[in-house]
Amino acid sequence: MLAARPKTLPAAAAPVVLGSACAFAAGSFRLGPALAALAGALLIQVATNFANDVADFERGTDTEARLGPLRVTQAGLLTARQVRLGVAAAFLLASLAGAYLIAVAGWPVAAIGVASILAGLAYSNGPFPLSHHGIGEPFVMAFFGFAAVAGTAYVQALSVPISAWWGGLVAGALTTAILVVNNTRDHATDRAAGRSTLPARLGRRAGVAEFAAFLVLGHAGTLAMVATGAAPLWSLAALLTAPLAWRLWSALARSDDGPTGNRVLAGTGALLLLHCLLVSAGLAAGRLAAP
To answer: Which residues contact 150 (CB under 8 A, 6 or more apart)?
Structure first.
């Protein structure tokens, strides 16, 4: 359970909920594919967390100086072999969910699933680990945003409504904000380990500014989603999360200690989930209120 990092799982669940709401708004919601997409997303996230746990330990990124939550390989709670078995088991279960979705929606699901698994493995593993080279942000935007939301809508509607593309921007930006908090909290240890994240290269202030940018982008995406008619006015309720976003940014800007960073990390996950739920509720309300 520690290795699965439950506080990060809203990053997998929220885009699927939003994608299902987009399908519902289009009159195409299907419970079976929605649940399979949720299971697959959660399992890929868990497998990625397992893979990062062991890879960061073996690369020397996770040491006793780490400020973030406990990592089980570094702490000696599990061996590297045990964690790798967990990676294989989680990806295998995700593949079972994927097989059902391929049967439902065809080859595009296979392409998304294979790409998601490869990206999860490449994040901290292989000859060019994405996190080590500081290019995690575009991959998080792509897979936790556009692929997750649009893909979830597709397996139900067999097409992608415009609301799902806007939803991908919203979910992707707020999920990337979670990554930025992690990088900002760990800027000193990442720099010592040779990582090239933006905060490690340019300093903590750059990470705080990047965090603000993705929070603003997520909320602006929701506003644009409504302004373009892709979502009803009801979805503007999601902008009620803006004060929470401000408090999270203020906390990160004021403090450089690990516990504060961990609280902001968990709070940003909660912000993502709440924002996506409110956008989703607005989409559902708009559909139900339609004549």
So the answer is: 19, 160, 164, 165, 167, 168
